[in-house]
C-alpha cells in the first residue's frame, strides 16, 4: 500500500481530475479531493462528456446536459473545486481517439498538474456497471495522453506552434474505479465523508433512490478502509497509483 499522506501534507502544487460524466469524480474521488483542497492544494475538474444520456426523467437531452453541468459545478464547489472544464463529448460515445486525446493533452499542458486523477481503463468484472464504456475510454484517453503524448514535443505539434503549449511531464497518475487487484493506495476520508456525500447529493437528476445510493457509497468506503488496514469506523477511497515520472524514471518515447 502506498501512503498518500505526503501528497496531501506537502501542499501539492496542482491536481487535474478527469471524469467521464458529471458525478463520476464524486463517486470515485470527492473525499480525497476535499482532503486535498482543505490542505491548500488546487484541484481542477475536467468532465469529458455532457452526461446528456443520464437520468431517469423524460427530458430533452440538451436540457439534461445543462442541468448536469450545473449539478457538477455545485458538487465541485462543495469539495473546494472552483474550476470545472467540460470537453463536450456525447454521453455514451466517448472514445480514446486523437480528437479527444488532443483536448486532454492541451489541458494537461495548460494546467501542468502534479497529479492527474482519472477513471481506470480496465474493466471491473465484479460489477460491470462500474465499467461503463465511457469510463474505460476516459481512463484510456488520459493514460495514453500522459504517456507519451503530453511529454513528447512531437505529439500534436500544433499545440506548441499555435498555442505555445510546451511538452510537460506529469509526475503521478491516480486511477479510481480500479479492479480490486490493481488498488495499491488508499486515502482516509473519514473527516471528509460528509462533504463527499453532499457533493453526490448535488446530482439530483441521477439518484431516484438517494438512500440506496448513500448506503452503497458508505459500504464501499468501509470496505476500502478495511482493505487499507484502517481502524474500524474509518472510511477510505481506493486508487491505483502510478508513478509516471519519478526520480528513477528512464526517459524515452
From TrEMBL:
<keyword id="KW-0862">Zinc</keyword>
<dbReference type="GO" id="GO:0016137">
    <property type="term" value="P:glycoside metabolic process"/>
</dbReference>
<dbReference type="InterPro" id="IPR003737">
    <property type="entry name" value="GlcNAc_PI_deacetylase-related"/>
</dbReference>
<dbReference type="InterPro" id="IPR024078">
    <property type="entry name" value="LmbE-like_dom_sf"/>
</dbReference>
<protein>
    <submittedName>
        <fullName>PIG-L family deacetylase</fullName>
    </submittedName>
</protein>
<dbReference type="Pfam" id="PF02585">
    <property type="entry name" value="PIG-L"/>
</dbReference>
<dbReference type="GO" id="GO:0016811">
    <property type="term" value="F:hydrolase activity, acting on carbon-nitrogen (but not peptide) bonds, in linear amides"/>
</dbReference>
Amino acid at each position: 500500500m502506498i501512503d498518500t499522506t505526503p501528497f496531501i501534507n506537502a501542499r501539492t502544487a496542482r491536481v487535474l481530475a478527469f471524469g467521464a460524466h458529471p458525478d463520476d469524480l464524486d463517486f470515485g474521488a470527492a473525499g480525497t479531493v476535499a482532503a486535498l483542497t482543505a490542505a491548500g492544494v488546487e484541484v481542477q475538474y475536467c468532465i469529458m462528456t455532457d452526461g446528456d444520456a443520464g437520468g431517469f426523467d423524460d427530458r430533452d437531452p440538451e436540457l439534461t446536459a445543462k442541468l448536469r453541468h450545473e449539478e457538477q459545478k455545485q458538487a465541485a464547489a462543495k469539495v473546494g473545486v472552483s474550476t470545472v472544464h467540460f470537453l463536450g463529448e456525447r454521453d455514451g460515445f466517448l472514445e480514446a481517439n486523437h480528437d479527444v486525446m488532443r483536448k486532454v493533452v492541451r489541458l494537461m499542458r495548460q494546467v501542468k498538474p502534479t497529479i492527474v486523477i482519472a477513471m481506470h481503463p480496465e474493466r471491473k468484472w465484479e460489477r460491470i456497471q462500474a465499467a461503463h464504456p465511457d469510463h474505460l475510454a476516459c481512463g484510456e484517453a488520459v493514460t495514453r495522453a500522459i504517456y507519451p503524448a503530453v511529454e513528447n514535443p512531437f505529439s500534436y505539434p500544433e499545440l506548441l506552434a499555435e498555442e505555445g503549449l510546451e511538452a510537460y511531464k506529469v509526475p503521478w497518475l491516480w486511477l479510481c474505479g480500479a479492479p480490486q487487484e490493481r488498488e495499491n493506495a488508499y486515502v482516509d476520508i473519514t473527516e471528509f465523508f460528509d462533504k463527499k456525500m453532499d457533493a453526490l447529493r448535488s446530482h439530483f437528476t441521477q439518484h431516484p433512490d438517494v438512500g440506496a445510493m448513500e448506503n452503497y457509497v458508505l459500504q464501499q468506503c468501509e470496505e476500502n478502509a478495511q482493505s487499507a488496514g484502517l481502524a474500524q469506523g474509518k472510511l477510505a477511497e481506493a486508487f491505483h497509483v502510478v508513478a509516471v515520472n519519478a526520480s528513477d524514471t528512464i526517459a524515452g518515447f
